[in-house]
Write a structure and sequence with these properties.
Keywords: Membrane, Transmembrane, Transmembrane helix. It holds the Pfam family SGL. It comes from Candolleomyces aberdarensis. With 368 residues, this protein is mainly β. It has a domain of 143 residues: TolB, C-terminal domain (Neuraminidase, 6 Propeller), CATH 2.120.10. 11% of the residues lie in helices and 43% in strands. The chain contains 3 helices and 25 strands. The longest helix is centred in the N-terminal third of the chain and has 30 residues. Bound molecules: 2-acetamido-2-deoxy-beta-D-glucopyranose (3 copies). One 2-acetamido-2-deoxy-beta-D-glucopyranose binds next to loops.
């Protein structure tokens, strides 16, 4: 065979491999990321915009009072400093991120002032949990992921020096008192966390297996490098589970069932807590799109924020947060009690709310 012919053969084989790769691997991923998806708006007529509260990554509802706690930042700083998304311009970071409470009934917004928190690296917030204290239900533990600038080295190379900050507040109060900072080498790229009612322990997701570098992009193709880390005040930190894919939001039910969102693969993973506080997977529930964080309501249903257009979020909204909006979805996952539960459909996935234009924090509630 002539050289030309050999080259042609090689090209045909490569094209076939690339085509197969596209069909088998890449296409389903791009479809989950929203390629070709037409937004199907629903459940969004009863929405309220809260203009004071911007760039709030996490919301936690205090169910007995109906008050919502939010971990907020500024839209301007996010494209510069969000280490989980490889945004490492520490000069542009907001170090004065804050926790706010919002009462949907009265519309009152309270930005909680910190007490006794003196870190010069401040607060650059991400995931959060707010848990009523087991000893006094009007006292709340606030667990926060804080993406601190590293003390030395270029953040692009060494990554952020992320910590978890624990604060204490009172329901209805306007301050939160500093309790402790948790630092540990296992806190690689912490994203979201769920804390215990004694203020002593939490489980936090790492959304990548390493802090920086191109290798992280392989996770988009299904590489499973993410984890959940368990930390206790006196016992320190350890892995609760490793080698999961796309770990992001985390929530726990009172009975020890945990839910972890696979943001990349668009799945909700169900896990059971073991006696040693590690987690094992018991179920995986599929959805059709990328998702973010999860909350559990008083009925035990799990609410998850979804991205109908993840590519718009990552490549357009992120670069220009005040101009390009990113559409969002709210899913409800519940136990399927209908007849098809018999045939293996253990969970029901309802798309409760879909909006093409979320620019600000939006409270989207359904009257049932
Ligand atoms: C979930 O995450 C999205 C985007 O990261 C955020 O806008 C939303 O408020 C969060 N929701 C909850 C319930 O934490
Ligand atoms: C980093 O952030 C600062 C402050 O917002 C900004 O002036 C600067 O242009 C940013 N640098 C890059 C490379 O984006
Ligand atoms: C725990 O509660 C959830 C509802 O929040 C339920 O789906 C799950 O089956 C329960 N797990 C156990 C082990 O009872």
């Amino acid at each position: 065979m002539g050289v030309g012919r050999i080259l042609l053969n090689i090209l045909v084989v490569l094209a076939a491999i690339a085509g197969g790769f596209y069909q088998l691997k890449l296409k389903p991923i791009l479809v989950k990321f929203g390629q070709g998806r037409v937004i199907d708006p629903r459940g969004n007529t009863d929405c309220t915009t809260v203009p004071e509260l911007k760039a709030c990554e996490k919301l936690v509802l205090h169910q007995p009072s109906g008050v919502v706690y939010l971990a907020c930042s500024t839209q301007e700083s996010r494209p510069h400093w969000l280490p989980n998304a490889q945004r490492f311009n520490a000069t542009g970071a907001s170090r004065t991120d804050y926790v706010a409470s919002y009462n949907p009934q009265s519309g009152k917004v309270t930005k909680l002032k910190t007490v006794n928190f003196n870190s010069p690296r401040g607060l650059s917030l991400h995931g959060m949990d707010v848990v009523a204290s087991s000893s006094n239900p009007s006292e709340l533990w606030v667990y926060l992921v804080n993406h601190r600038e590293p003390l030395s080295g270029d953040p692009k190379v060494v990554g952020a020096d992320s910590s978890v900050e624990v604060f204490k507040t009172t329901l209805g109060g306007s301050t939160m008192e500093y309790v402790r900072t948790v630092e540990d080498p296992l806190l690689l790229t912490p994203n979201d966390l769920t804390g215990t009612p004694d203020g002593k322990a939490f489980w936090v997701t790492n959304d990548y297996g390493v802090k920086t570098g191109l290798i992280r992009d392989l996770d988009l193709l299904g590489r499973a490098t993410t984890s959940v880390v368990y930390c206790h005040e006196t016992e320190g930190c350890k892995y609760a589970i490793q080698n999961m894919h796309g770990n992001n939001g985390i929530a726990q039910a009172p009975n020890g069932t945990f839910y972890v969102v696979n943001a990349i693969g668009g799945q909700l993973t169900v896990l059971e807590k073991q006696a040693d506080n590690t987690l094992i997977i018991t179920d995986v529930i599929e959805s059709d799109r990328s998702m973010d964080n999860a909350s559990i309501d008083s009925e035990g249903d799990v609410w998850v924020a979804g991205f109908p257009k993840a590519l718009v979020l990552v490549y357009e909204h992120f670069a220009n947060p005040t101009k390009v909006v990113s559409p969002s979805t709210a899913f409800r996952f519940s136990i399927n009690t209908g007849p098809n539960s018999f045939y293996g459909q253990k969970f029901k996935v309802d798309r409760v709310c879909d909006r093409s234009s979320y620019t600000l924090s939006v409270a989207c509630h359904r009257i049932t």
